[in-house]
Every structure is written in structure tokens, then in C-alpha cells.
Amino acid sequence: MSTRIQQLSDRLQQVFGAKLKANVVACNEVTIEVAASDLLSACETLRDDRQFAFDQLIDACGVDYSEYGSSEWSTEKSSATGFSRAVDSSVNARLRFGDEPAYVSHARPRFAVVYHLMSVSNNIRLRVRVYCESEHTPVVPSVVGIWSSANWFEREAFDLFGIIFEGHPDLRRILTDYGFVGHPFRKDFPLVGHVEMRYDEEQKRVVYQPVSIEPRVLVPRVIRHDDRFEKETPAANEEKI
Question: Is 125 helix (H, G, I), strand (E, B) or coil?
């Protein structure tokens, strides 16, 4: 672990104290967690305090933890169980239209927003995570007033996850259509979507209609630990010639 990384973690703990719900150093990176009510004050300190000087917001993204820790593909061997999970909805596959996924219960809230900060003067990065208190109406304060680059990042998280950023100057969809239904990065969003579009010759316009396909995955995803992808030896090449 880098000494500078550990020093940053220690300084954060000294400055914010009990406001930090988590302060983790992993993979030579620091990740802190704050409550939504403390987000704006914490971000202002991270930007204005010269020992931090996180003057750039590199990215802000939403996270859906509803199925965190679960896996539809937990096997590394080709087996009947691993195969059936891809095609049989009775074993919690998420690949059929209209099926309800089985969620794993966790102590953590479902939705979170993660901010990636950069200090140019100190040449160091920081990750800040804040959880939304409500699953049904996920809300966190907007940090556009602190870093203007958050504008489109927050709109993207709103569009794809349905997270509301309170105080955002223009919170509307940015990637999907204006009439799009749902939020496609949520874990309970159908893989084929809710509707499909086509051009209607009679009406001379694009129309929406229910999805007409039922996707199936017939090949299990198997991780094979063998030498099939290793480079061929010169002797093997000579035999082929």
C-alpha cells in the first residue's frame, strides 16, 4: 500500500470523524462513505480544504445493490444445474420476459451514488459513496453547485437508475427516449425491455408495441482452465505443415 494513500485515509478520518460511515483502503485506493444529509458539507470540504483539494469530479454513477452477492452463474464446470439456470425461470434465471427476479436480502440500502474525485495539485484520487435512504423514492442532494461537471453525470444516474438528485437545475433523461418507461440499469428491469419500436407505414410514424421476442440462453457460460488458448509451440506448427 502506498504511504500517500494511507495518509489520505488518516487525514479523512481526522477531519470528518464520526461523519464517515466507512473509510476503506483497498487496491491502493481510498473509498469513504457518508450519509446523504452530510454529502454537501463533506464535498465542500473535500474541494476547498487545501490538504484535500479535490477540485475535479471525474465521474458520478448509480449502483443497484438489490442482487449484490448473488450469481446466476456460480459454477466453473459444465453441469445440468449451471445450464438450467440459464433457461429455466424456476431456478431464478432473469432471462425470460415478465419473470420476477428473486432478490437477495441485504442490510444495506438498495441504491447508492458513487463519486470519483481527483485532486490535480495533490495528484491523488478518492471515491465517495452515499446511499439513498428510500428504495421506492431514492433521493440524494445534487452536487452540481460544487462541481458543475456533475450535471450530466447526475442526469445519467437519474435516467438509468431512477435516482433523484435534489436541487439539480435540469433533471431529465439524457440517454433514453422522452417516453421511455422504467430505468434500464435497475436489476429488476427486463433484459428485453418493456416495449419495442417499429415504423408504421399506415400511420407514417414510429409506434411502440409490446415486446414480441422471448430471449433464451442455450449455452452456459463456463470458465475452463486449460491450455486451449495458449500459444502453439513450434513443434506443433511443424506437425501441421
Answer: strand
What are all long-range contacts of 33-40, with beta carbons under 8 Å and residues at least 24 apart?
A: 33/128, 33/129, 33/130, 33/131, 34/128, 34/129, 34/130, 35/130, 35/131, 36/130, 36/131, 36/132, 36/133, 36/139, 36/140, 36/141, 39/128, 39/130, 39/140, 39/141, 39/143, 40/141, 40/143, 40/146
What is the pLDDT, as a whole number, of residue 91?
45
Q: In terms of C-beta distances under 8 Å and separation of at least 24 residues, what long-range contacts does 238-241 make, across chains too?
A: none
Domain that residue 11 falls in: 3-69+104-193
Which are the contacts of 26, defined by CB distance < 8 A and separation ≥ 6?
none
- Name the domain count of the chain: 1
* CATH number, domain containing residue 128: 3.30.460.80
Residue with grid cell 422504467, as numbered in its chain = 182
126 pLDDT higher than 60 = yes
Residue 65 lies in a domain: yes
Confidence of residue 213 (pLDDT cuts 50, 70, 90): confident
pTM: 0.75
Cell of 106: 441485504
